[in-house]
Amino acid sequence: MxxxxxxxxxxxxxxxxxxxxxxxxxxxxxxxxRYVATAPEGDPEDTEWxxxxxxxxxxxPGSWTTEETTEDPRRLxxxxxxxxxxxxxxxxxxxxxxxxxxxxxxQPADDVATIAELAEAIRGCAARVVLxxxxxxxxxxxxxxxGRAFTDALxxxxxxxADACDAVALVVAGQPVWLKSVTGAIEAAxxxxxxxxxxxxxxxxxxxxxxxxxxxxxxxxxSLADTEPPTPEVQLPDVLTHTPPAAPTAEPxxxxxxxxxxxxxxxxxxxxxxxxxxxxxxxxAGPQAVDRLATLDxxxxxxxxxxxxxxxxxxxxxxxxxxxxxxxxxxxxxGDHAGxxxxxxxxxxxxxxxxxxxxGRGALARLAAESGASLQVVDTPASAPIEVEPALAPxxxxxxxxxxxxxxxxxxxxxxxxxxxxACGAGTEAAAAAVLxxxxxxxxxxxxxxxxxxxxxxxxxxWMIRCAAVRDALHxxxxxxxxxxxxxxxxxxxxxxxxxGVLLGATARRVPVLxxxxxxxxxxxxxxxxxxxxxxxxxxxxxxxxxxxxxAADVLGLTPxxxxxxxxxxxxxxxxxxxLLRSVLALSAALPVHPSLGGADDTDPAADESxxxxxxxADPDRTEPDSTEPDFTEPDFVEPEPAGPGPASTGADEQxxxxxxxx
Length: 663
Known about the structure:
There is one protein chain. The protein has 663 residues and is of the alpha/beta class. The protein has helices spanning 19-26, 47-59, 75-82, 94-101, 111-124, 145-164, 285-293, 307-317, 349-358, 362-371, 394-413, 428-440, 444-447, 460-476, 484-492, 494-508, 518-530, 547-556, 572-590, 605-613; strands at 8-13, 33-37, 65-68, 88-92, 128-134, 167-172, 175-180, 239-241, 328-334, 374-379, 418-424, 513-515, 538-540. Helix 5 (111-124) packs parallel to helix 6 and helix 16 packs across helix 17. It is globular and about 85 Å long.
């Protein structure tokens, strides 16, 4: 299970409501799952029913064990009583169980006593138990005696089981709502998809606190590795805004005002698990925007490869005429990796870079100010040497993922239209290489870039130490699970885990992310198993000549827009390309359709005459001529005669043709 504090859950829902999928998502992370099938096989000629059962069987992981209770409904209580504490039992569903219970082959029987026996077995079960049951109490009263007997018995069973369970959830149209928590209080959870991030019904055990904001570079920073009890509301890092961008308007049809996914945040926080269903960009807006580019009034062939920027912006904004990103936020993740991963780096250099960015100095802060982007420096937990031990503890990974999600949520609430993800930390390249080796089967030497010293020299010895550290880490974890959270804990470390949470949170809130550097790409690789939709919200401006970035981009299907090979630090490279990307979007939105394709001709004299004859038309750039001045007409162009050596004129009022004034 993903949460602690409760053992038994009842999941209710109507037909095709998604109750079974939601129940299965609750036990995804359980190491040992026993699936109890209660439905009878039915008529052999009923192919539709057989198809339903086949789909249920195909959806179960191969590691699960399955038990049938169709022969004896009383056996369900025995299965629960014999379950071990390390097991998780999934019962699907009580409707089939009641059907078998009422079958004439099992009569006479005391239905009330059997239901009471089941409820008692649930209360005494040592294992985690998730039960699925149809909610038939909202339908019409059946017109047949058998139908009424079924609804009455199932209603009684649902009430008894709900009373025995720690928590009860109702799934309506794929949206789970928690009706009962451990304390018995009703918690109003925000809607979430049946397979998406779920609102958990109870408070988990205390985990290390998340990073706290720092006002200055000299103040102490609380990281995720702290052991103090968590505070009710963890403060996020300060946002440094050099040039506040204009807030987006909430006009009808404004693409920035489109509704976003409601986050399932309750008192227990957010549970991030594999297979989440998050939003996808608009699949039609992107191609429509590219088709529109071919009709614009441009003298040449168009935008070239930069039409991908327009397609990406159109898909993420949900319109064929996307606007240039106005509000941009840079997230700089700072966290060091110990051991051989940081070979060749100067001690304290990453902390100096982070403090420099906080103070508004350095390449990243200056480029952010030039672009009018806000800057947020985030301290992530330091990672242990991956060649000898896991980089993070499992509870730190959970906390880091949630923290990254909250950073993206904070940006979305502030009206940010584009996130730029960067990192600065010792050993980040080696950690990203280890993640790539574990997720894409890459060889460490092929994805580890050369180590460059402060003097600009290549340090081959440090490069070999990094390769050895990644190799030893992969050997140490060769028998470990390759799940997303396991990779983050064993190899990725704090910065990659927080970056993964940022990508997932941004996807949930429909905020595009501009990636820059190995950490963001490694997070993109890990996020595939948690939510495959995340990569579709990512854009890569430049690969920077880094082999790990190139490989990860190829796997994720992200084609770099530029090939500038910039190496100004993660985040700064993307900000150099940002003005170009904004210009492309502004140009594509402002240019009219070519006259040959039905667009208006701005140079047509008839159009000008019709406009000027309209009394309502007023050209703001036009001024009425003074009646005392002569009416000058533009002379025909005459090629000037050569002036010979020296200046053509020596008049004191003459100015250079470039437009700049001397002095």
